[in-house]
Amino acid sequence: MVHWSEDGEARTARWRSERGAPPPKNVKIVDDRVTADEAYGLAAQGTGLLWRGDYQNARQLLTAMGNRVDQPKGPKKPSKRTPASRLSPDAERAGAFNLERQARAQRARTLGMLLIPLDADYTIPLRRAPDLREACTEVYGPPHEASLVSLRELLGVVGAHEWRRKGIEIPGFKGSIHPHYGVFAPIRSEYVELVAKAPLPADLAPNSTAFDIGTGTGVLAAVLARRGFKRVIATDTDPRALACARENLERLGVAARVELVQADLFPEGRAPLVVCNPPWVPARPSSPLEHGIYDPDSRMLMGFLKGLAQHLAPGGEGWLILSDLAEHLGLRTREALLATFEQAGLRVVERLDARPKHPKVSDADDPLHRARAAEVTSLWRLAAT
Questions:
Q1: What's the Cα-to-Cα distance from 93 to each of 84, 293, 356, 370, rounded to whole Å?
Q2: In this structure, what are the phi and psi dihedrals at residue 4, rounded to the nearest 5 degrees?
Q3: 77 pLDDT exceeds 70?
Q4: Extended beta strands in the chain, E state
Q5: How far apart are CA 212 and CA 222, in angstroms?
Q6: Contact criterion met (CB below 8 Å) for 195 and 216
Q7: Which pLDDT value is given to residue 363?
Q8: Which of 163, 197, 230 marks a domain boundary?
Q9: What is the pLDDT of residues 183-221, one digit of tens each?
Q10: pTM attached to this predicted model
C-alpha cells in the first residue's frame, strides 16, 4: 500500500509494480505547475510524485525528466578500485556491462517516481486521460480497488497491449506472434529462422515428438509443429507465458498438436528432438520482467545441458539456441561452454550461425555497441556421447 497526506487527510491506495519496485515512502502531490527540474530533483531523492494535473502534461514531464537523467554528469572522480589497466579484458568488459546496468536501473527508479492514480475500475481520474481499462485488465486482472502506478510502467502496459493486439511479424514465419505483457517477445527473428531451417536428426521417425523447453510465446513450438512433428510438448514455469503460448498456438492453427505443460525445464519422458532457447546473458534480473533476458548463474542453461542426455531418445538431438553476446561482454567464455557440453555427456553434431539484424547492432551510441556488433547467434546441434 502507498500512504500519503492530501487536503489534510491521510490517504492510502494499492501499489502496482510488475517490475517489483517498492512503493515510495514519501509522496508529494504535484500538478502542471511543477517544473521538470523540481520534479527530477525530488524523484532522484526517492520522493513519489502523485500527479493531479493533465495526463498529457504528465507524459511531457516524464520525457523532460528522462532528458535530465540522460544528461552527461561531468568528469568522474578517480576510482579507488583496481585501475582498468590492471584488469583482464574479460573483467574490464564485464565491469562496463555492470556499470551500464546500474545506470539503467537508477534511471528506471528515478523515472518510476512519477505516479498516476487508477480508480477501482482502472479509470484514470485526470484531464485528457485515455481509456486504458482493457490494457490494465490484461496485466493486473479484474479491477476491484483504487491503486497507484508509475506512469513509466503504465506506458509499458499500453505498449504491451498494442503488441498483443497487432502482433509481431517474423520474417519467413507465416502468421504473427502476439506477445503478452511480461513474456519475452520474438523481436529478434534470427533464432526462429535457425530452428525453421536446421536439418532434423537423421534417424528421426515420421510423426515424432519434440520438446520445447521454456516456450514463452510458443513461437518455436509452432515452428516445430509446422515442421511435421505430430506432437510437441512445450514447457514453461510462468503462467503468463503458458496463456500467451496457448493463444498464439490456437491463432496459428497448431494447438491440437502442442501440449502445454507448466514445468521447470523438462517434461517427463524422452524425445528425439529437444529444443531450448534460454536467456542469453548470465546476470541477475533486476525485475521479474527481465527473466527472459537474464539467467542468473546460467541456471536455465546449465539445467538444460545437464539434463538433456537423460531426455533424449536414442539417436536424438538437443538444439541449444544461444547468442555469444555474453562472451563479448566478458561474462562467459567459449571454453567454459564447450567444457559444460563435455561434462554433460554431449557432443556437437553441428553449429549453425546467424548474425543478428536488430537496430542496436548498428547503433554506435549504444554503450555496448562493440559487443553487439560482434554478436553471433548459434544453434548448437547436440547429441549424447
A1: 10, 18, 20, 10
A2: -155, 170
A3: no
A4: 2-6, 9-16, 26-30, 47-51, 114-118, 147-150, 168-169, 176-177, 209-213, 231-236, 258-262, 271-276, 312-323, 346-354, 377-384
A5: 10
A6: no
A7: 73
A8: 163
A9: 999 988 899 999 999 999 887 876 799 999 999 999 999
A10: 0.89
Contact (Cβ atoms closer than 8 angstroms) between residue 315 and residue 201: yes
**Is the pLDDT assigned to residue 154 strictly greater than 90?**
yes
How many structural domains comprise the chain? 2
Q: In the numeric block, which cell numbers belong to residue 165?
A: 493486439
Looking at the fold, whether 14 and 121 belong to one and the same domain comes out as: yes
Q: Mean pLDDT, to the nearest integer, of 15-36?
A: 96
Structural domain including 200 reads 168-384
Stretch 113-117: mean pLDDT, rounded?
Answer: 98
Asked whether residue 148 falls in the same domain as residue 291, the answer is no
CB 14 within 8 A of CB 145: yes
Q: Scanning the structure block, which residue is given the C-alpha cell 503504465?
A: 154
Kindly report the CATH number assigned to the domain that includes residue 242: 3.40.50.150
